[in-house]
Amino acid sequence: MPPQPYSISRTIRREIFVKLATMAAFPRFQGAWVLFYRDRHINQFGLLQGDSIVWWKAGLGIAVATVAGFVVMRVLNTEKKIVYHISFLAHLTASLLQV
Question: Does the keyword Transmembrane helix apply (predicted)?
Answer without folding.
Answer: yes
